[in-house]
Each structure stands twice: as structure tokens, then as C-alpha cells.
Amino acid sequence: MLEIRLTCENCNKSLPYNSKEAMICTFECTYCTDCVELLKLICPNCSGGFEKRPIRPSHHLKKHPVSKVVVQKP
Predict the structure, then answer these.
(1) Among residues 59, 51, 1, which one has the least CA distance to residue 30?
(2) Where are the beta strands (DSSP E) in the chain?
(3) Would you give per-residue pLDDT tens digits along the chain (74 residues)?
């Protein structure tokens, strides 16, 4: 189950569960499309590529809520 992290790990932009701008790597590092472009499509944490994060249907949010973790770069 994806965590669905709610902010970009680089710029801290809000990325709600239904954001079309959220991108993730294989380890679910989460970035906005603008930062992914700046990173040249390579995750700075694991060197993997990015894919568009799927949107969790809203009727599943009660049973499978989004992550409360906010990851920011140091």
C-alpha cells in the first residue's frame, strides 16, 4: 500500500492525495513535477526514476488514509 506522502521532499509543495503533480520513485520518495524536472527525472535519494503517483479513490481513504509523514530535505 502506498503511503501517499502529502508534500514534495524538495520544495515542500502541498501534494494532496488527488494531486496530478505528485511523482514517486520505487521507494516512494515524493516530489512535485517541477522538482522532478529540475532533478532531470532521477531521484536524489536512490538514483531511481520517477513515475506519476496514482490517485487513491476517495472512497478508500477512510480504511487506507494518506501518510501523516512530512519529509523535507535537510
Answers:
(1) 51
(2) 22-24, 30-32, 51-52
(3) 889 999 999 999 999 999 999 999 999 999 999 999 999 999 999 999 999 999 999 999 999 998 887 766 65
In the chain, the domains with their CATH numbers are 1-56 (3.30.40)
CA torsion through residues 19, 23, 29, 35, sign: negative
CA distance 39 to 18: 23
Single-letter amino acid, residue 60:
H
Give the per-residue pLDDT at 2.
Answer: 87
Sign of the alpha-carbon torsion through 31, 18, 58, 12: positive
Instruction: Tell me how far CA of residue 50 lies from CA of 22, 31, 59, 61, in angstroms.
Output: 10, 9, 26, 24
- Looking at residue 38, its amino acid is L
The length of the chain, given as a count of residues: 74
